[in-house]
Design goal:
The chain is of the alpha+beta class. Helix content is 29%, strand content 15%. It is built from 14 helices and 14 strands. The strands form four sheets. The chain has an eight-stranded mixed β-sheet. The chain has a two-stranded antiparallel ribbon with strand order 4-9. Strands 5-6 form a two-stranded antiparallel ribbon. Helix 2 packs antiparallel against helix 14, helix 3 (98-111) crosses helix 7 (220-232) and helix 6 (195-202) packs across helix 7 (220-232). It starts with 25 loop residues before the first strand and ends with a helix. The model is unreliable at 1-22 (pLDDT under 50).
Length: 429
């Protein structure tokens, strides 16, 4: 056990400058940005303790402040045989961290005047005309009735997950059953569909509730990915490459990896109780091998990208530093503010203040509140991914964080919250 969980850390400072074009990240000493190196080193102890307790197989973690990378280490191995340590070239499945790229792309088109945030979705995708909402459901045979929508789903509804479009697979019971009827329990890829076919099919699925009634996490960003295709006249992968990845020098971010980079895609771990093992070693890759299944013609704007930690850090550093070449200040400000008072029909601000967070256009936004549930600064925006990846963007501290692991079924949010506390406790001034 101890041999399998041996700490294998690598400092990624072999290259001084990690990115160019307005998102420069350079190696920096913590003291140069008012942080304590001794305090940051406690992250090592935190990760190692989880590994020693068989609660974590390892991962890679990075903190940058004021454009300087002050913590960047990896722990553990890509495989349970301890044959390949995690390193700087690793490619990770981003899953829902894809949503941030889609949101930025939508905001690019918004600031160019090509999309209105309050436009009805059917303006761009006619299949979304005359949508219906799920009403009564008979669990005996999965039959159901519907009622018409009271108002059209808008682009802003999609960006804030208030449309009524959900993840069927995340909602056992009637919603899962209805989504299954339409073959809509799709998340990362599809063998034969195009993005157009997928989203046109999704438009026919009854909404879980009236648009604007509440927040319901779901396939909204995938619909936005199709809107990007319609408005730009190109496929989503090509739009991302030309308008986000190439301007930022993100050379290792893809929906479907080139074959020459297959060996850099890390395995997905599952906890077997007494040990960790990758699903690849177990021969159970049906839900994880999609990055190697290209080229395909469906691009999941909500979950389909894979990337390196430094590529993704470059992307979010661009946002914390003002948008660089990819997004203007006005669009960035709109994207990162709490949208809930504007989109929820019967919004109750007291609830948001209790939980300490709202939701922007594609991100959770941390709000200042008496509960102080997080050490993050008010205005910090963030999200994570299905395989246990995390990021946050703190404009007040000019700080970004990326955490990469690849775990199926990791539900220990305390691991991340304790890490965030260590990061903020290291700030000395």
């Amino acid at each position: 056990m101890k041999a399998r969980l041996t700490l294998a850390f690598l400092l990624f400072f072999s290259v001084a400058v990690f990115a160019q074009n307005g998102a420069t990240l350079t190696k920096g000493q913590p003291a140069s940005v008012g942080m304590s190196s001794d305090a940051l080193d406690k992250i090592d102890q935190h990760v190692k303790a989880y590994m020693d307790d068989n609660k974590l197989p390892g991962g890679s973690f990075m903190v940058a402040k004021e454009g300087k990378v002050v913590y960047n280490k990896s722990f553990g191995y890509c495989d349970s045989k301890n044959e390949q340590a995690y390193g700087k070239g690793d490619i990770w499945r981003l899953a829902s961290m894809t949503k941030a790229v889609t949101a930025v792309s939508i905001m690019q088109l918004y600031e160019q005047g090509k999309i209105g945030l309050d436009d009805p979705v059917h303006k761009y995708i006619p299949a979304f005309k005359n949508q219906v909402v799920l009403d009564k459901f008979d669990k005996a045979d999965s039959s159901y009735t519907t009622i018409p929508v009271e108002k059209d789903v808008t682009v802003r509804n999609l960006l804030t997950h208030t449309s009524g479009i959900v993840y069927g697979s995340f909602n056992p019971g009637k919603l899962m059953a209805v989504y299954q009827k339409f073959d809509m329990n799709v998340g990362f890829s599809h063998e034969t569909w195009t993005t157009e076919e997928w989203i046109n099919r999704l438009a026919k699925v009854p909404l879980a509730h009236q648009p604007g009634e509440k927040f319901s996490y779901g396939l909204n960003m995938d619909v936005l990915g199709r809107i990007i295709e319609v408005v730009s006249g190109t496929t989503l992968d090509k739009y991302f490459k030309v308008n986000v990845f190439d301007p930022l020098g993100m050379k290792d971010t893809y929906f479907y990896l080139p074959e020459g980079k297959f060996d850099r895609l890390v395995g997905v771990y599952a906890n077997l109780g007494d040990r960790w093992m990758t699903v690849e070693e177990m021969g159970r890759t049906q839900g994880t091998d999609y990055p190697k299944k290209g080229p395909r013609n469906v691009f999941a704007g909500g979950a389909g990208l894979s990337s390196t930690m430094m590529d993704y850090a470059t992307f979010i550093q661009t946002l914390v530093s003002g948008g660089g070449k990819i997004l203007g200040a006005e669009a960035l400000a709109e994207m990162s503010r709490d949208q809930m008072p504007d989109v929820i029909t019967d919004y109750k601000p007291a609830r948001a203040q209790r939980v300490g967070s709202g939701f922007g256009l594609g991100f959770t936004v941390y709000l200042d509140s008496p509960t102080k549930r997080s050490p993050k600064s008010p205005g910090t925006y963030e999200w994570g991914g299905y395989f246990n990846t995390k990021f946050f963007i703190d404009p007040q501290e000019q700080m970004v964080f990326v955490g990469m692991t690849q775990i199926a079924g990791f539900n220990d949010n305390a691991f991340w919250e304790d890490m965030y506390k260590l990061i903020y406790e290291s700030i000395e001034d």
